[in-house]
Amino acid sequence: MKIISDINELRDHLRGQNRASFVPTMGNLHEGHLSLMRLARQHGDPVVASIFVNRLQFGPNEDFDSYPRTMQADIDKLEKEGVYILFAPTEKDLYPQPQEYRVDPPQQLGDILEGEFRPGFFKGVCTVVLKLFSCVQPRVAVFGKKDYQQLMIVRQMASQFALPVDIVPAETIRAEDGLALSSRNIYLSASERAEAPALQRQLSAMREQVLGLKEKTVSSLLDIEANALMQMQTRGWKPDYMAIRQQRDLARPTQADLDGGQPLVIVTAAKLGKTRLIDNLEI
Ligand code: PAF
Fold first, then answer.
1. pLDDT mean across residues, the chain
2. What pLDDT score was predicted for residue 230?
3. Strands 21-25, 140-144: parallel, antiparallel or unpaired by DSSP?
């Protein structure tokens, strides 16, 4: 595997090849990331992975400085997956000048849910993803469904800018007890790790409650959300949101949407101790 940090060198290496299948990451790779690499490979060679902890998507009180950086272990894992190029730019490589041009996703999608609790997050994500796409010029890019809103926003960005890249979704990989794999799981203490699967169990319970409704109404969904929030708080969690939304745009479903059978998804972010976990479940 070739490890490249310079944008021009990356382009030189990719010239004359099939356009790549690309997996952008922030490193600290786990089985979830590796499943993205495998999926990328099914969509064509060469596979390019990137590792870049993107300052632009972290808020002032978030974990940019302490975000786990495990480059050598990551390299070993990517080698085993047959990744062709690891693009690992430094901040100077990717942002040689301050990145003043930014991609601002529409408020109705970028400022809700994750965007409400992490202002500017999706602006940072879209800006770096567009820049990485410009460096790699992939034919396909794989994004995990665990970051449901990120996947939707990146997909819409690619569509609205007519970027010549197919955004491929990848299923969430879970530990045996149901906890969605995440780089931030390493922040959990042993007792928090034992409690963490409760989040996914709560999503499953909400899903059962929605499916069990004789008639879906806006207020019955709000009751299910409120009850779930209370249950998680009682267990010692601090949920930011546990929301039943439409799969197509993450908006709250209206009664007409519910009557029309619009597919729903439950999305959540909740803090357990100092660790913020996110997850989702389609209904
Ligand atoms: O999901 C992530 O790891 C990051 O948001 C991404 C897509 C690599 C952009 O920094």
1. 97
2. 98
3. parallel
Q: Whose alpha carbon is nearest atom 8 of ligand 1?
A: 25
Ligand 1 is surrounded, with C-beta below 6 A, by 24-26, 54, 57, 125, 128-129, 147, 150
Q: Which of 94, 92, 87 is nearest to 4 (CA)?
A: 87
How many residues are present in the chain? 283
Task: Report the interhelical angle of 31-42 vs 71-80 (nearest 10°).
Answer: 40
> Taking the complete model, does pTM exceed 0.70, yes or no?
yes
Strand-pairing partners, residue 85, are 2, 48
Question: Token match 């998507």: residue?
Answer: 57
For 241, the 3-state DSSP assignment is strand
Report the alpha-carbon distance of residue 112 to residue 126 in Å, rounded: 15
Measured distance CA(39)–CA(26) in Å, rounded? 18
| C-beta separation of 249 from 105 below 8 A | no
- Locate the ligand 1 atom nearest the alpha carbon of residue 53 and give its number: 10
